[in-house]
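Our preliminary data section would be incomplete without showing what the modeling component actually yields. Below, a chain of 731 amino acids is followed by its predicted structure, encoded as tokens that our downstream tools consume directly.
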Amino acid sequence: MEKKDLLHKRLKEYFGFDTFKGNQEAIIRSILAGKDTFVLMPTGGGKSLCYQLPALMMEGTAIVISPLIALMKNQVDAMRNYSEKDGVAHFLNSSLNKQEIEEVKKDVLSGQTKMLYVAPESLTKSSNVEFLQNINISFYAVDEAHCISEWGHDFRPEYRRIRPIINEIYPRPIIALTATATPKVQHDIQKNLAMTDAVVFKSSFNRPNLNYEVRHKNNDIDREIIKFILSQGRKSGIVYCLSRKKVDDFAEILQANDIRALPYHAGMDAVTRSNNQDAFLMEEVDVIVATIAFGMGIDKPDVRYVIHYDIPKSLEGYYQETGRAGRDGGEGRCIAFYSRKDLQKLERFMQGKPVSEQEIGKQLLLETAAYAETSVCRRKMLLHYFGEDYTVQNCEHCDNCLNPKIKVEAKELLITALEAITVLKEKHRTDYLIDFLTGRDTSDIETYGDDKLEEFGSGSDEEESTWEAVIRQALLDNYLLKEIENYGILKITKKGKGFLKKPVSFKITKPDEDEDDLLDLDGDDSEAMGAGSGGAADPQLYAMMKDLRKKLSKKLNVPPYVIFQPASLEAMATSYPITEEELQNIPGVGAGKAKRYGKEFLELIKRHVEENEITRPEDLRVKTVANKSKLKVAIVQAIDRKVALDDLAESRGIDFDELLSEVEAIVYSGTKINIDYFLNEVLDIDVLEDVYDYFREATTDNLDTAQDELPDYTETEIRLVRIKFISDMAN
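Predicted structure:
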């Protein structure tokens, strides 16, 4: 009783709290007892206090190993606010000069420093190792411990060296803390830190106040995000982008639309980055546009929304970044924009890395794709990923639960899948199993000789997406599991074996036909317009415009997609443009296209608006920044001068794929350009004619479809000819 009173007394004295949160008290007692301790606690659960309080209470200095300079500064500043002496906490990293380092060491040696934050890189320096060997260390805290694991979302090779360095300095108890760890990552951390016997504290990963939503990403994304942010008034929010360039560009676009926003990424100078972070914390700005470098350890309780402009590389990353919303228990909206094209881009970024790293990266991306594409409760799926069962039927706080899909019986399909896994001797991952079920004769399947098995192609009557849904649901219902040591390999559980002996009802959610229509848009949704979109607000008008487009395509002898992209029709059926100027505000419609094809569409929209007495919404006109249009103008001018496209990409500091995307946007919006000079240089005439003829006959300009039909040609060759075709036909 006396000890409990002392702990609570110190909690009140140092931090001003009367009670502990969740597992905090038990964790602190474990550290005070000198035990290795492993803490899994979601963002906002109060991890820092778990090592800060025992550090203040114990003899000596706690060494806190932390990955980010900004995070250390934030933590040290916070600790100094709780103490009368600045020397109570220090950091030792590359941001300090020689004199500052000496002052830190002096405070540590004098015994007044209770916490010394170090980066893993600083820990390995021989001068620091020598210094630490001469001080009294209370314990080691490894913060953001997921950085140890190659399966974690923020792998840092330096973290792998922590245990040998600790052994060299002086072994003391270790507390490892992370906000995101799957069972695989947890195992990896404990093994690497040689703390497999540690006391493990795992808090629930469920954040009931967070609302999860995934939206399809299209060319209207900027407008969609701006509308959302403006609807939130002066609430705080974070927008995450994958590239530094996108962070800078989008922050400028938000500013141009009167939103108080600032960028944050590792490429900025330290002073500006720190000032921007402080401006957000001090509420001088409402929105931070950032790469994932922002937010670790930032204790801002009232972030009301987190938007992912690009889908993250892993679910761990997604969970940690969304976890920065609603840390005070209040509302937190988490909106992620997703297109398969983004995943393909992320996969391309991995090329050139070691094969094992590529394999891991690919598996993490597959998990992210499964989450983004699922029709089941997002909370259930997210928690399952972290090894936690969520048994509530409807969480009422995710898009899938708020708009539930129809469930269909799939007992026979699960039997087929489990039988296939059995004959494959439980040695393969989901993608291999689906290829086997659908009868796709891949080189891997041939190598293993599995195409000779009777069950090969036993599920060919069903779509790949159906099998993905079956496997996803079987994992959630515990009929299957993914092996921890050999990540991704499917094993049948005891429950699954029982199901095979005595099958029971098993239901999966399948997208309904309307949703398929929106995603597929008659199979003619263009890669240049993004991979699907959010749907038209006025389905009746959308259908009438599709009919008009079909009629015009026959009359003009061009494919329908050449006239207007499906996403452009959707946008028209949402904002009802009735003038040529308004039509040019629609994504994918430039001045040329508006003049050439606009008249009949505008007449149709105007008539529909009048007949149905529709009040048109005030159309938010997204103001863009000059740089964007400058780049397009520069590209058109360079093509007029016949600059080779690869040289042009290099001179603009962008990769070739990005340049092609810009050129595609130019021709799709109605500007005519001539890249024959470049095509004649890089393509054989046969290739050019074959691909051109394909697009002349095709009902879709979709890149994946084109690649299936033209397997002998590369994606780049097809894209180049598609640019010529669209420019010739549409403009």
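Residues 512-534 have pLDDT under 50 and may be disordered. The two ends are 82 Å apart (CA to CA). Preliminary results of this kind motivate Aim 1 of the renewal.
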